[in-house]
Records
---
Amino acid sequence: MREIKPIICAVDMKEFARISFYAYPGMSSSYDKLLERLQEINSKDKNSMFYVVKDEQKAVGGMRLIDYKMNYRNEFINVCGVGVVAVDLAHKKMGIAKDLIKFYLNKCRNDKQPIAILYPFRPDFYYNMGFGYGTPYLTYSFKPHSLTNTKDRTGWCYLAKEDMPLIADCYKRVAQKQHGFCLRSSFELERYKKRFEGNGVTIGYKENGRVAGYLYFTSKKSSDTNFLTNYIKIHEFVYTTPKAMQALCNFLYIQSDQYDRIEYETQQHDFHYALSDVRYTDQDISPRIAHKAYIGGLGMMYRIVDVKMWFELLAAKYIFNCADMSLAITVEDSFMPTNNGTYYLNITNKKLKLVDKADNQIALTVNIAELSSLMMGSVRFENLYRVGKARCKEQNVEILSDFFNIPSAPQCLTSF
């Protein structure tokens, strides 16, 4: 008989480390190092728990679940992330990963965590389980002198591990304003602090005694045959004011004599406006004379775990800047069939109410994955309608676009 339970003994953790090591060979250079890392997380991170799957008392898979507080439209809500979903090599294609994700989603529902989040090892796998796409990540590669030189060097400072409270305060202020950001736990802050003891530089910008922005980066070799050729890889670029952003860009600008390029992965899709030369450093060009400016990829995915709970949360906490309307939203969810059905909503004076039935409803049929992306603001409703992923009468597209309009697409710097 198959069962999923928390890892509370050393033997199960060793088995989970073995399974994970072979499931994700690139995750660690050795089994012993991976085991040490997992044991540290298990003992110190009070917001996460490892789970093991046992089949006839034999460990065949496992995962890690992490509780977060995520900014949803300027209010923090409880969400849960899943990571290190691993299956023993000899037990693949037996539905173990599916059982793990079902357990995870049901736990979210029971714990009143209406949104599940993850980084997919394969987007199609999780899309078929009802997870919707988040905001794409764009990787820019540009010359340092493409940034603006403000010639103002006041306010710069090196930040060390002793400055973690200032860095944490800066991050928290951004998280309080940015839709999709997750607050950092004490464990995550401690791990972040360890970065300062290794490779990397953190430059801060201070205003009125507080860190208004910071830039964490490492130096990488551009060539195996020329040690003088290097580039900057930005890991975090966080700022609370335009002045802080411009000051940190100015710091990067003056590095052009030592670094031939800068790599920066971000969900800020307008970052190229900060560049005077938007071209990717390989300078590829398409037949339409479109210059390559970045490489894009889909990462974070989101899922509404309980549709009724979700609409009740929206009714209790949020306003909708749209006209009064009555909606009949039919949700299709093959992975969690309890979500299947039609939900009747009234929006009156910018407030939503879940009702038993409504008159003159605007009908919409949508899959749970697309509904999750819509509610997170990852996609515009009219774009989903255009590709056939949202079904309604054409005359209602504009009205529904107003209902689903979220000013900011979600962004997230949290890794798990």
Note: The first helix runs from residue 10 to 23.
---
Amino acid sequence: MAEFKKVAEISELSSGRKEITIEENKILLLNLNGEIYAIGSRCPHKGLSLAQGKIEGNIIICPYHGSRFDVVTGQVIKGPAKEGLPVYEVKVEEKDILISL
């Protein structure tokens, strides 16, 4: 059974996103139309942050080289990245955001 850890509160995502570090994992929390997602926050192409990436629907675009990733699945939609992003299971309990590592 997955162990969930509190990583933030809903109010911390007022801008729609928040980058956090948990056990050396860089994670980007996203609030897309009321749904909370947690993905790896480093583009696998060059290891640069996706925190300022543009969001188009469920797609996040790397602000450096334009790789596109599906926020729901982590899958690469368009390179140059060849690997997808880690995706973390999310639970919301009242005001708390919890993820499974």
Note: Residues 4-100 form a domain with the Rieske Iron-sulfur Protein fold (CATH 2.102.10.10).
---
Amino acid sequence: MTETDATPKDAELARHATKMAKKKAARDKIMAGKAGEKGLIIVHTGAGKGKSSSGFGMILRSVAHGMPCAVVQFIKGAWDTGERRLLTTHFADLCQFHAMGEGFTWETQDKARDIAAAQAGWEKAKELIRDP
């Protein structure tokens, strides 16, 4: 096919290919400058639904890729959740699971105990963060 035989669609595809090649070259240059791997800390907060779903989705992706990870829950305590059961039964070698709370504060009605449980959870989280 000669240049005169090219259709507008062919020209658009060629422009796109050139643009993507430039993007790839720029991205490859950025990635070449990266050294070592770093851990990632993600905190989910806020009212409403979605925090656990989002967090466990990330945990499952990490486990699926063979990456070590940990869960520190500050509220749920001894609840026997499906997520906890799955991770501790099938993926304990990759994912540490720590349910540190004693329930919702409006259920426990004991501020001092709630604060102590939160502090214990935070200490566990710091320990995990420091562990390479």
Note: The chain is about 55% helix and 10% strand.
---
Amino acid sequence: EVFVFENVIGLAKWAETAIFELKGYKITKNIINSENFGIAQSRKRKIFIGSKKRTIEIKNPIIKSVKSVREVFNSIKDNWGFANH
């Protein structure tokens, strides 16, 4: 049995996982930022992963560079036929 819970930093509290630990879940907690996943915005989220069998590691990816939305659109050769987009 496994679950994943995510929420904004201000709303979720780390202590909320205590009830799952009492029920036998091994809990992993981490804060991730969407920009570390190649998304063109910075949005921090709390992530909880619970597992009955083992602790599940949350790995933060290594992104060498983040592209802006403009850079992504400019990299499209024909802009899908849309002028000035």
Note: The chain has one domain: 2-80.
